[in-house]
């Protein structure tokens, strides 16, 4: 539980080292003697082990020079993998009510501190709350308390200022209503497809503009995106820089399709970025040493086609049991994990966040939950 709390409260991170690293590493070392069976890869975590091997091979053969932080990257990757395996193997024994309570308070504290006075990356905060926050629904006993919490998360992320976070928080809240409202639980699949249709319909100008005018006073950036997306895509420097990094990632992949350039090496990789397909009158600056701002592009560039393919297979394999049993999830802990899972998959298009304690703890919950649904006659 302390691991989940520290992974959520990233304000305690020390540079590139997560706050949970030392604490979690000690727990793992102490556990290996008598509880080593919890750290043996099983199920989808075997594919994750294969990804780790591919990532380490990429680091060995990369043309990017090793630095003092390279050994730390290797240790962190192994540490995160062990976290995932431990959560996967102990999924049925975890006190899910206590876990939900811990994440509830940690997520609220993190986003509240950010909104009030802390200066942390908007996307980093929003991403952590998007993937951790939904776990907090489970321990709340009354439906109205769950609703209040869901709405509060949306409002806090709106005040946080993250466009992607605000949109995904809203969609996650809609998913929450589908899964946690008793009269709707049997129709989740139908409602989910309706939600997808609604998301597509936001491209219809009248609906999108009306929603944008409503949101604008709360979150100007989201409002602008809804009211005039074409203007934003052509003039907003954040979007333009993200597009440039996608171009860089695809260029790197063409040069290193099999081994990639090694994990965490995307920002340091020097090359002339092709921006000929970016339509804008603005001059793009500071695009050389930025993160990929897209997890899938980062994986493709840093671990090559083998690494990205393994991640896609893992996620799709984990997603399938959820989709098959969606109408039966109801207000279960697995329902909370599903909401987090969807937020994670979507946010990966706008942030490089595959690594980190919070992400890998969630991978453990996702794969463990999928295995529980699939093999334990879940109903």
Q: Kindly state the mean pLDDT as a whole number? A: 86
Rg measurement, Å: 21 Å
Note the main sheet.
Answer: none
According to DSSP, the number of beta strands is 0
List unreliable stretches of 5+ residues: none
Mass-distribution shape: globular
Succession of helices and strands: HHHHHHHHHHHHHHHHH
| Broad structural category | mainly alpha
Explain the overall architecture.
With 379 residues, this protein is mainly α. The protein has one domain. It is 68% helix and 0% strand. The chain has 17 helices and no strands. It has helices at 2-8, 20-35, 44-61, 70-89, 96-116, 122-132, 143-160, 163-180, 188-201, 205-215, 220-227, 229-235, 237-255, 295-324, 326-329, 333-347, 357-375. It is globular, with a radius of gyration of 21 Å.
Core attributes:
single chain; 379 residues; mainly alpha; 68% helix; globular
Helix and strand arrangement:
Layout: H1 2-8, H2 20-35, H3 44-61, H4 70-89, H5 96-116, H6 122-132, H7 143-160, H8 163-180, H9 188-201, H10 205-215, H11 220-227, H12 229-235, H13 237-255, H14 295-324, H15 326-329, H16 333-347, H17 357-375
Helix pairs in contact: 1-5, 2-4, 3-4, 3-14, 4-17, 5-6, 5-7, 6-8, 6-16, 7-8, 8-9, 8-16, 10-11, 11-12, 13-14, 14-17, 16-17
Structure at a glance:
With 379 residues, the protein is mainly alpha-helical. It is built from 17 helices and no strands.
């Amino acid at each position: 539980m302390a691991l989940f709390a520290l992974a959520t409260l990233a304000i305690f991170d020390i540079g590139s080292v997560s706050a949970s690293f030392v604490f979690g590493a000690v727990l793992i070392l102490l556990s290996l003697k008598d509880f080593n069976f919890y750290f043996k890869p099983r199920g989808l975590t075997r594919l994750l082990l294969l990804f780790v091997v591919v990532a380490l091979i990429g680091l060995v053969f990369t043309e990017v020079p090793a630095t003092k932080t390279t050994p730390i990257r290797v240790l962190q990757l192994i540490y995160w993998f062990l976290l995932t395996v431990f959560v996967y193997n102990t999924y049925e024994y975890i006190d899910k009510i206590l876990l939900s309570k811990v994440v509830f308070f940690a997520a609220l504290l993190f986003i509240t501190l950010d909104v009030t006075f802390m200066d942390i990356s908007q996307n980093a905060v929003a991403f952590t709350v998007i993937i951790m926050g939904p776990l907090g629904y489970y321990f709340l006993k009354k439906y109205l308390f769950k609703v209040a919490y869901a709405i509060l998360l949306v409002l806090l992320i709106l005040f946080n200022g993250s466009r992607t976070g605000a949109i995904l928080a809203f969609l996650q809240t809609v998913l929450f209503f589908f899964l946690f409202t008793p009269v709707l639980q049997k129709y989740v699949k139908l409602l989910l497809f309706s939600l997808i249709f609604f998301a597509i319909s936001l491209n219809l100008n009248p609906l999108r503009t009306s929603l944008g005018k409503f949101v604008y006073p709360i979150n100007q950036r989201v409002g602008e995106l809804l009211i005039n997306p074409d203007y934003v895509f052509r003039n907003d420097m954040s979007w333009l820089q993200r597009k440039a990094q996608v171009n860089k990632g695809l260029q790197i992949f063409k040069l290193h399709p099999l081994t990639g350039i090694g994990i965490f090496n995307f920002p340091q990789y020097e090359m002339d970025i092709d921006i000929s397909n970016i339509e804008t009158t603005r001059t793009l600056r500071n695009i050389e040493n930025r993160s990929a701002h897209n997890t899938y592009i980062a994986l493709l560039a840093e671990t090559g086609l083998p690494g990205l393919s393994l991640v896609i297979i893992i996620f799709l394999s984990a997603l399938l049991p959820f989709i098959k049993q969606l109408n039966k999830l109801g207000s279960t802990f697995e329902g909370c994990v599903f909401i987090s899972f969807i937020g994670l998959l979507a946010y990966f298009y706008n942030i490089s966040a595959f690594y980190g304690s919070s992400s890998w703890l969630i991978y453990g919950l996702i794969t463990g939950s999928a295995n529980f649904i699939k093999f334990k006659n879940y109903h």
